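User: Sequence for Glutathione reductase below. Tokens please.
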Amino acid sequence: MEKYDVVVIGSGPGGAAAAYALKDGGKRVALVEDDLWGGTCPNRGCDPKKMLVSGMEVVERNNQMLGRGFSLIESIDWPELMAFKRSYTDPFPRSFKKGVEAYGIDAIEGSARFVGDNRIEAGDAVIEADAFVIATGQRPSILGIEGSEHLLTSTDFLDMDELPKCMAFLGAGYIAFELAAIASAAGSEVTIVHHNDRPLKGFDSDLVDSLVEAYEDRGISFAFDVDIEAIAEDERGYLLRGRGSGDREYVERFDCVVGATGRIPNVEALDLENAHVNYDGHGITVDGFLQTSNPAVYACGDVVAKKAPKLTPTASFEGAYLARRILGSAAEPLAYPPIVSIVYGSPKLAQVGVSPAEAAERDGSYKLDEMDLTNWFTYRRIGEPVSKVKLVHEGDRLVGASALSSQADALINHLAILIDNAIVHEDFNRMILGSPTLASDLPSLV
Ligand SMILES: Cc1cc2nc3c(=O)[nH]c(=O)nc-3n(C[C@H](O)[C@H](O)[C@H](O)COP(=O)(O)OP(=O)(O)OC[C@H]3O[C@@H](n4cnc5c(N)ncnc54)[C@H](O)[C@@H]3O)c2cc1C
Ligand SMILES: NC(=O)c1ccc[n+]([C@@H]2O[C@H](COP(=O)([O-])OP(=O)(O)OC[C@H]3O[C@@H](n4cnc5c(N)ncnc54)[C@H](O)[C@@H]3O)[C@@H](O)[C@H]2O)c1
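Assistant: Structure tokens for Glutathione reductase:
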């Protein structure tokens, strides 16, 4: 039987951050993976999605420059765009695993399951360790409806050889908005079907309304307040059946339907009962130090039941914290800085820190500014149809921001740096930034 200081289960951003930092700290570390090395983000999440977003951005920019020296590009060649994506994803797991091994971390292939409080089995190996980090992530949750076997997932979409002519996304969260924008830009007729009338819950509702309008302008349809009950295959595609408000029947046919109704934690295969590790439907339950009900077992990333958004940067932040905790250099409970969330739609929607809704609730201590930036030079020069920002200040300090535009992803990170470093308007008097850029807009925003 092999013995390690620490065994990390799951090689995604959370597990990898922990494993590398523990190795740096002198520990003997094994990293266990039962599928694609590197986890969701580089293989079937953020990165492949953003490779396809590159195509969407070209179409978006082209549309904005029509009649300004440009005419319409034909359309996206989907198989070529997919080949571009695969040029990144296909070699990724192999080179990731090579990197792990070159760093001196033992890479073990197999599905890990606990067989005792400090012992797992993975493949043929039985392994003991002083500490375990569980970082097994999540997988798509499949709606429990009749014919659910016909639903595709985000993983299927991100590896589709041909783009369907007409498709639906069920759910109106991050995945539906991002993949719908990609599919629409590539020429598919897209509908987002949602069970209530509040898409992208968690983001500012005014900006979400503007995003929905922008999608409708691009030809994306929405079916709100529809509870889907069944999907059936026939000779012409997939028939989606449900009930709308007032018990009205909803029946539509699509070439393909992608379920995007959330993700569920990967816990079942781990046999957590054998190690006395508690979990619930949201994931593994942990204390403020990311320790589970078994003092030798920790958890980080998407598999944790937590309030923090389940994103790559939060997973790696937690993995790095856990390494410090196990190495004995983190005495305090985990504390998150303001976390940036971005929906890579068309346009992009982003937020960080105190939300406009929270600012409105705590009347008096926060000041909320709403600004339409559409006529600012940064946006005029690219023919941007909509650019809005909502800024929350506490005294002279920026504490929160929400933004909607094709540049919102970059802008929100700039604003997060101001928030994290308590940079106020006067601080820009000491700086000379390259102009005209998003960064040179900042002094006028804060
Ligand atoms: C379509 C999509 C797009 C996304 N886009 C973004 C984005 O733009 N930005 C962003 O911040 N986040 C994005 N995310 C979320 C991001 O991918 C996750 O938050 C992140 O990957 C979580 O990292 P993790 O390490 O917790 O888990 P994962 O990356 O899911 O890694 C977990 C690993 O554990 C392995 N595993 C599971 N069970 C076992 C077992 N029993 N034994 C061994 N190994 C096991 C899995 O195979 C997997 O490789 C996206 C997600 C999806 C699905
Ligand atoms: N850009 C990014 O950072 C990014 C991109 C994609 C995914 N992610 C991560 O992956 C997670 C999963 O993405 P997602 O879009 O699947 O989840 P989500 O939680 O963002 O959205 C799920 C949507 O499905 C709806 N829904 C839930 N149950 C339903 C039901 N029974 N019937 C109909 N609709 C239902 C919800 O109301 C919601 O609108 C995200 O929460 C996020 O953590 C992040």
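The chain has three domains: 2-140+264-327, 148-261, 347-445.
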